[in-house]
């Protein structure tokens, strides 16, 4: 392995790990003020919104790819299917879409 | 109930985590294969390709590093950009810390390594008690898929049929949608949280780096919705959301 690549990989590993580990270790078991707590409990659902959109529109050059896949996942999930079924349905519908269009 | 957490229970939590993480493993498959393939065309060795996946474990940052390496960017700039992209995990780990049970710092230090967007999303939306064993289960299957498929992608190139490769790019987004929907159905508040964050993020990604955009959009939505709901609770003396934590 070249020295430059070694430095790049180690450096990337460190700066990736720090934000992931810092809150978990430094605030382990600490009680937060109620208002901060309430906001943190909202974070997972808000984060999902930000992780889905607008990224989903740009997974392929054809914007309809993301839209059709997203709507498929939404409908199947609303019907109450579990995670894997939702993921596989979205992939299957898009495979059909790309075969026929 | 000091001894209620037996090894048996920990094992079953770990196994439940692995099951919950299977959809992440599927979602990582095309992303990791493509990463390995691009790494090979960028000129990395097989060892370097696998080492990066094994030590960094961050999809978006690894892709970015390859495109920067390809144009001859310096190490320092690549590392700094990685930091900017991954700073969002500061917020995600803080939220996990709030939900997860207290545990030894070394155990938390281990699962912290695996706290990707997807591991965070699956763990943080789990109903009820969130144990270290569960998070470790989710993280370990996600990690295995990421590292192994990076190597496979390098060795045999983009081996999936182009059509399947293309349609599998929806997998991680479908996973996020599947995680969001059950809670959406139960609480109006969650509809607002996701919608505002999506809206803010769409605007912010046009002006600032993605890592910051996600963090600011998420936080802004979480705070804004909290303010709206506490005002509403104050005015009407009720909330449709009182027992969300236990939900």
How far apart, in Å, are the first and last alpha carbons of chain A? 45 Å
- Shape by Cα distribution of chain A: flat
Strand content of chain A: under 5%
- What share of the residues of chain B lie within helices? over 70%
Strand content of chain B: under 5%
What's the count of strands of chain B?
A: 0
Shape type of chain B: globular
Give the helices and strands of chain B as they follow along the chain: HHHHHHHHHHHH
Low-confidence stretches of chain A: none
What is the helix tally of chain A? 4
End-to-end gap of chain B:
23 Å
User: Largest interface, and how many residues on either side?
Assistant: A-B, 74 and 102 residues
Give the oligomeric state of the chains in this entry, treating copies of one chain as homo and distinct chains as hetero.
heterodimer
Number of β-strand runs of chain A: 0
Q: In DSSP terms, counting alpha (H) and pi (I) runs of 4 or more, how many helices of chain B?
A: 12
Q: What structural class should be given to the helix and strand makeup of chain B?
A: mainly alpha
- Model regions low in confidence, pLDDT < 50 over at least 5 residues of chain B: 241-247
**Secondary-structure class of chain A:** mainly alpha
């Amino acid at each position: 392995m070249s020295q430059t690549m070694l430095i790049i990989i180690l450096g990337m590993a460190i700066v990736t790990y720090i934000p992931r580990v810092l809150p978990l270790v430094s605030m382990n078991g600490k009680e937060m003020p109620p208002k901060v707590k309430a906001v943190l409990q909202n974070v997972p659902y808000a984060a999902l919104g930000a992780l889905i959109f607008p990224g989903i529109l740009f997974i392929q050059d054809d914007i309809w790819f993301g839209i059709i896949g997203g709507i498929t996942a939404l409908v199947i999930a609303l019907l109450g299917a579990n995670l894997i079924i939702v993921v596989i349905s979205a992939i299957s519908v898009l495979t059909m879409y790309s075969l026929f269009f | 109930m000091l001894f209620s957490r037996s090894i048996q229970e920990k094992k079953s939590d770990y196994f439940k985590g692995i099951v919950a993480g299977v959809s992440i493993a599927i979602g990582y498959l095309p992303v990791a294969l493509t990463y390995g393939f691009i790494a090979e065309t960028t000129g990395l060795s097989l060892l370097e390709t696998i080492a990066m996946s094994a030590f960094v474990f961050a999809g978006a940052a690894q892709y970015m590093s390859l495109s920067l390496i390809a144009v001859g960017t310096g190490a320092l700039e690549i590392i700094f950009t990685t930091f900017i992209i991954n700073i969002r995990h500061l917020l995600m780990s803080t939220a996990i810390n709030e939900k997860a049970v207290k545990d030894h710092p070394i155990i938390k230090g281990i699962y912290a390594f695996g706290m990707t967007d997807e591991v965070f999303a699956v763990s943080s939306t789990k109903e009820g008690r969130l144990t270290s064993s569960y998070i470790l289960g989710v993280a370990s299957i996600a990690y295995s898929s990421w590292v192994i498929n990076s190597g496979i992608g390098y060795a045999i190139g983009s081996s999936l049929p182009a059509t399947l490769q293309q349609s599998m790019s929806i997998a991680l987004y479908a996973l996020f949608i599947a995680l969001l929907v059950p809670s959406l159905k139960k609480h109006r508040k969650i509809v607002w949280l996701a919608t505002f964050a999506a809206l803010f993020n769409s605007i912010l990604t046009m002006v600032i780096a993605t890592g910051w955009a996600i963090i600011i959009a998420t936080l802004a939505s979480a705070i804004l919705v909290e303010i709206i709901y506490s005002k509403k609770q104050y005015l009407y003396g009720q909330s449709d959301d009182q027992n969300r934590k236990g939900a």
